[in-house]
Amino acid sequence: MIGVKISGVGSAKPKNSVSNDDLSKVVDTSDTWILTRTGIKSRYISDGETTTSLAVRAAKKALADANITADMLDMIIVATLTPDQLMPSAACLVQKELGANNATAFDISAACSGFIFASKIARDAIRTGSNKKVLVIGVEILSKILNWKDRNTCVLFGDGAGAVVYESSAEDNILNIYTGSDGSRGSVLTLDGFPINNCLVEKEPNDYFLKMNGSEVYKFATSIVPICIENVLKGTNIEIQDIDHIVLHQANIRILDTVTTKIGLVKGDLFENLSEYGNTSAASIPIALDEAKVDFKKGEKVLLVGFGGGLTWGSILLEW
Ligand code: ACO
Q1: Cis peptide upstream of residue 88 (ω within 30 degrees of 0)
Q2: Catalytic residue among 92, 131, 245, 249
Q3: Which of 45, 86, 94, 271 is surrounded by the fewest CB atoms within 10 Å?
Q4: CA distances from residue 121 to 8, 195, 210, 230, 285 in whole angstroms, order as listed
Q5: What is the 152 CA–ligand 1 centroid distance (Å)?
Q6: Largest CA distance in the chain
């Protein structure tokens, strides 16, 4: 079997960090409410950076880390809820900016699990032998799909991008990937698309804002993460105690704390940067990986877990 490894990681964020106090001037909220309920202190918000520009910045760092040039890429997959355009895809816009002329480029939509789903496609594409180098990007400008009058949602999210290069390799460092979906529970987290509006039917456009049932999302997240961990470890001879670093989708500190207790870890065992970034959906795991990797040593076991709208979920077990 052809092995697959991560050879490069990079991330990018907009220059503006917006604090909870800054937000309390925009909506009826407070630093105390946001911090105690979510653990978020600030988030990055674009004042002009686009999904493409952030993705390209993260991608260039990942390519430099992998020590390869863009023309060596066989495939670019962008996971995002917030492309600049529906056509061309975000991946095609990134391809153009990078000059990745030999790559097949396309987007996938799996909300906060998008990076995990795209990574599975990348790994499988390399294992077939028809692709050697695949760039996966998770990127969001969530600030453009938030209702800035809705304090229930607008305080939770931020903008950012993370990118990973997967390459064929003699050693197989992607030990396992597990994914799942449940469309029947999708209504707890939604973002409407275009309604039918044509020469036969006239309809008002939707509002295009993210909507969330917070308590249902919380219940889903805290129940699915242990299942993701159990399933990705199954059949690998690796136990949770053997894992050196766990990087969860950065949604909310209460989700991280509840999961910590449920899987028998101690506070602080899970990587955390949501206090600085808020929830960046598809970008959250690759940004967190980029920041966490400074502490990784070769051969250590790393677990990535994502969960989000759809509903969708997934996990990756890596050897660094
Ligand atoms: N500032 C001040 N008050 C607020 C705010 C705010 N930003 N938002 C809500 N409130 C108020 C509500 O209006 C409500 O007031 P009321 O009691 O007078 O009606 C009160 O605070 C309590 O609201 P709840 O929704 O019950 O607050 P809760 O303690 O449940 O916390 C939260 C809400 C943080 C969203 C919680 O449900 C949660 O953690 N859910 C998980 C959601 C999540 O992480 N989503 C991320 C996106 S999804 C993903 O990544 C998978």
Answers
A1: yes
A2: 249
A3: 86
A4: 17, 30, 26, 21, 16
A5: 5
A6: 61
- Which pairing describes strands 210-212 and 189-191: parallel, antiparallel, or unpaired? antiparallel
Distance CA 46, CA 69 (A): 28
Exposed/middle/buried for 189, CB within 10 Å: 0-12, 13-18, 19+?
Answer: buried
* pLDDT tens-digit series, residues 281-313: 999 999 999 999 999 999 999 999 999 999 999
Reported pTM = 0.96
Helix residue ranges per DSSP H, the chain: 20-23, 31-38, 51-66, 90-98, 114-127, 151-154, 214-233, 253-262, 274-277, 284-292
Please tell me which residue in 20, 131, 252, 279 is annotated as part of the active site.
279
Report whether 164 contacts 136 (CB < 8 A): yes
Tens digit of pLDDT for each residue in 144-203? 999 999 999 999 999 999 999 999 999 999 999 999 999 999 999 999 998 899 999 988
Q: Show the domains of the chain with their CATH numbers.
A: 3-170 (3.40.47.10), 175-319 (3.40.47.10)
Q: Can you tell me which atom of ligand 1 is nearest the CA of 281?
A: 50
From 194, 140, 318, select the one nearest 244 (Cα to Cα).
318
- Pocket lining for ligand 1, CB < 6 angstroms: 29, 33-34, 37-38, 112, 151-152, 155-156, 189, 212, 214-215, 217-218, 221, 251-252, 254-255, 279, 307-308
